[in-house]
Amino acid sequence: MLRFLVLTSLAALALADLGPQPRYLEDSHERVVGGEVATPNSWPWQISLQYRSGSSYYHTCGGTLVERGWVMTAAHCVDRNDIALLRLATEATLNSYVQLGSLPPSGQLLPHNNLCYITGWGRTSTGGSLSAQLKQAYLPLVDYTNCTKSDWWGSTVKNNMVCAGGAAESGCNGDSGGPLNCLVNDKYYVHGVTSFVSAWGCNYPKKPTVFTRVSAYLEWMDSVSIQIQNIISHIWSMAEVIYRVVLGGHDLHQTSGREQIIAVSQVINHPEYDKDDINKGYDIALLRLATEATLNSYVQLGSLPPSELILPHNNLCYITGWGHTSTGGSLSDQLKQAYLPLVDHSTCSKSDWWGSYVNNNMVCAGGGAESGCHYDSGGPLNCLFNGQYYVHGITSFVCEHQCNYPKKPTVFTRVSAYIKWMDSVRI
């Protein structure tokens, strides 16, 4: 049945050809840098978007409650399960040169140092050129215990991923979606789908290549094979199982009784969003909630700006979120806020600032000691306009080197550029 299905990767930003500078905030896993802890429920439209891993939920991004049944967030926040099936227009002919990849048993975990090979046409070095010929590299498996050590990948790696390599050889840009072929009982199985590497370099010390663990997705693949015509609706219905939002929350680990926890029933990314082209923009998504939120003193709708509103340089704005407080730091337990004055497009797009990475549908803010950081993705940039705070931006990306890098202010999706699209989705 899988003869007409090809296994590939949905998104692998660290492996895609994005250039050396920007990086989506949830890809390196950090929070608001500088600033202070917000007064509880002082930003009542801020939500915590959480995903399920095993029996627990974990904060992954922020978001904004824009209607009782809708949340606005960044598109890259909800593009997380890094595996996809592609249906071919015609079935492949199997012969000596074209064969099916052998899939592992469901749930299989291989031991440390298991023999594996990565194959692909990706770059032969960080910043190098693509290989004209298919290459292979020996990448011994790195077990979960080692790969999740704090000085390795830490909490970035989940148990539905697998690590391999870590020395001179690794995957690199252009290898995304390709197989990690592992030897088990004298036979090679496709144990992994190439997903991401360190933004510091493809073969960075203690940062082995990370793959989607295929054995964690066998049941899903089988269900898609049986009912391939329903693949889109199947994936969207999975949103309710994978994601939830917490409204009215302040502390991620202590409840106050004010919180509302609602499942996400539908994920709608902007149709022009391209996960492999960070400077194209369109990093916006709408989440339909399974039930409508109850509005009160602790849960309020975020005010959206007038369509196409452009705010002036140094306009007063605040970013809010639970992201890391420093590059490489840990998540904040409590919601933080930081003052980030707006940086106008003419300044932010200077060649020694962000240059062509930012376009007119984005907005920059900060650039000093305070900034957004990883796990702030999707959350609001709250800007004061005519005596009222509007959600003018959706936290999108920072510099790959550090969150508060000089002349690299935090970049946001400009909400006023997408009002018409949001209105059309919510009709």
Automatic annotation (TrEMBL):
Q: Which UniProt keywords apply?
A: Calcium, Disulfide bond, Hydrolase, Metal-binding, Protease, Secreted, Serine protease, Signal, Zymogen
One family from Pfam that matches here is Trypsin
Q: Which GO terms describe its molecular function?
A: metal ion binding; serine-type endopeptidase activity
Specify the superkingdom: Eukaryota
Reactions performed catalytically? Hydrolysis of proteins, including elastin. Preferential cleavage: Ala-|-Xaa
Q: Which GO terms describe its cellular component?
A: extracellular space
Supply the name of the protein: pancreatic elastase
In the record, biological process GO terms are: proteolysis
**UniProt KW Cell membrane keyword:** no
Q: Which cofactor does it need?
A: Ca(2+)
InterPro entries for the chain: Peptidase_S1_Elastase_sf (IPR050850), Peptidase_S1_PA (IPR009003), Peptidase_S1_PA_chymotrypsin (IPR043504), Peptidase_S1A (IPR001314), Trypsin_dom (IPR001254), TRYPSIN_HIS (IPR018114), TRYPSIN_SER (IPR033116)
Domain Peptidase S1, by residue range, is 32-427
Q: What is its EC number?
A: 3.4.21.36
User: Where does it reside?
Assistant: Secreted
Please state the span of the N-terminal signal peptide per the UniProt entry. Answer: 1-16
